[in-house]
Amino acid sequence: MAQISPVARHDRSTRMASLLAQRRFFVGFLAQVMQYGASLLLLPFLVKTLTTAEISVWYLLITIQGLAAIADFGFGGAFARGIATAFAGADTIQTEGFNGRAAGNANYRLIGDLIHAARLWYAILAAIVFLVMITGGLAYVMSVTATSHLDAREIIVTWTIMALATAQSMYFSWVNPVLIGANRVEHDLISQIIGKGGAALLGIGVLLAGGGLLALAIAQLAAFGSARIIATLFMRPIRRQIPSLTRDNARSIRLLRTIAPNASRFGLASLSGFLITRSSVFAVTSFVGLTEGGAYAISLQLISAILQVSQLPAQFAMPRLVSFQSQGAKRAVRREAIQLSTLFVALFLLGVLALTFVAPPLFKMLGRNVILLPAPLLFFLGVVMLLEGLHSVNAFVLMTGNKVPFTRAAVLSAIAVVAGTLFAGWCGWGIEGIIAVQGLVQLSYNNWRWPLMVLQDTRIVAP
User: Which of 346, 269, 354 lies closest to 313 in space, CA to CA?
Assistant: First the structure.
């Protein structure tokens, strides 16, 4: 029997790794398309079948439902990093850093404890979110729709179903960090595609069948439920390897207390990042005008989508980075950081160039009246977001070392950007001035500090 040479074996494994990376990137790209495109897919059917009041109520319900997503406050990422650390062979989870070097063999007992802790955490969150939505949320929705002449009972039932869908989605969110930490990121993305795409397709179906707001809510509940069932099916290979252990709530609570400091710091940093990138929309709309504000908001949304797609390789590399960090393999961490940063820059620049020069004539050819910023402003915004995304990739690398050193800087930067953009708008500096404020604030510290810290941590630059 012919023996496979080491070179041939290496070439085969290299090809397999390349195919896996391409598949993951395609799935991630499709997930981003669904993230931004599902609502656009549903919109023409909403306009055709519902009244203006019903459409307004639906988007109000969706907006309030979306606010519940921030209730996670950083714990999802903390659970994912913890599970990746356990798969790397760690004995325990530390509040910060690692306790010695990981053994390299997956610690399934710790993985089981983390899964139970995640289920406990998201069960508590789901209960809180549901109670808030059917009390304060329902009261707000009823007050806003009091003069809409819509059936109050239908609004109440619709909102209750939306609350159930949100609570259901929140509870099963424990699956996402497990799949990510277990290096099954594409399975997590597939479940997202099914959830978003299924909600849009089922929504279109019920609207064409003559359904209204209530039918839309039921369609969303069914789509989210189906996505979560499929996500839990992806979990089966992992759960089969976890020993049958007695669930210990006390041990789970100790784990939650251990990861809470970093999780809350990252949650606060994420909220600050949201304010940094989104406060400019309010400033442009308020001080420059609605037309310009609309062009800016669409341009920012498209560039943000390009940024998220360009950061997908970093997300896919998270389990590998955590393994390197837990084993003290600084040279490998340095190599990954440089490769991920280079790949991010290349993908992002390609996307922004396509958006600047290819998208406008394409929109025109398709008959879509999509108004973007003028090319110079669009490219300027792209450069600011490029630097933003580059330091975010390096901050992500730092987080895989189980530390979150950037919270204070993120909060102070958010305060400076919000105040600065409002001041720029009030002074009449226009869109370019508002973009420049965000860019200068970030350039003054964050844009260079976190890439430099990665170099320092991997001993390229002396501390």
Answer: 346
**Residue 69 Cα to chain centre, angstroms:** 10
For 311, counting Cβ atoms within 10 Å of its Cβ (0-12 exposed, 13-18 middle, 19+ buried), the class is buried
> How far is residue 369 from each of residues 34, 139, 292, 362, 364, measured CA to CA in Å?
21, 38, 14, 11, 7
What integer is the mean pLDDT of 221-247?
79
CA distance 201 to 39: 10
**Alpha carbons 18 and 355: distance in angstroms, whole number:** 27
Helices then strands, counting H and E runs in the chain, come out as: 20, 0
Q: Is 130 left (phi over 0), alpha (psi -120 to 50) or beta?
A: alpha
Distance CA 155, CA 64 (A): 14
Count the Cβ atoms, other than its own, within 10 Å of residue 256: 19
Strands (E), 321-429: none
Q: Return d(Cα 399, Cα 314) in angstroms, integer.
A: 12
Q: Cα separation of 158 and 319, whole Å?
A: 40
pTM value surpassing 0.70: yes
Q: Among positive and negative, which fits the CA dihedral 400, 403, 407, 410?
A: negative
DSSP 147: T
Rounded to 5 degrees, φ, ψ at 80 are -60, -45
> Is residue 446 within 8 Å of 409, Cβ to Cβ?
yes
CB 262 within 8 A of CB 96: yes
> Are the C-beta atoms of residues 122 and 143 closer than 8 Å to each other?
no
Alpha carbon 398 to its chain centroid, in Å, reads 18
SS3 content of the chain, % helix, strand, coil (to 5): 80, 0, 20
Residue 1 pLDDT: 44
Highest mean pLDDT among 108-112, 286-290, 437-441: 437-441
3-state secondary structure of 157: helix
* 317 alpha carbon, distance to own chain's centre: 15
CA dihedral (218, 118, 126, 260) positive or negative:
negative
The structural domains of the chain, with segments of one domain joined by +, span 24-247, 261-463
Which value, in Å, is the radius of gyration of the alpha carbons in the chain? 23
pLDDT in tens, 143-197: 877 776 778 888 889 889 988 988 888 888 888 888 888 888 888 888 888 888 8
Q: Please name the amino acid found at residue 404.
A: V
DSSP string, 320-339: HHHHHHHTT-HHHHHHHHHH
In the predicted model, what is the mean pLDDT of residues 107-123? 88
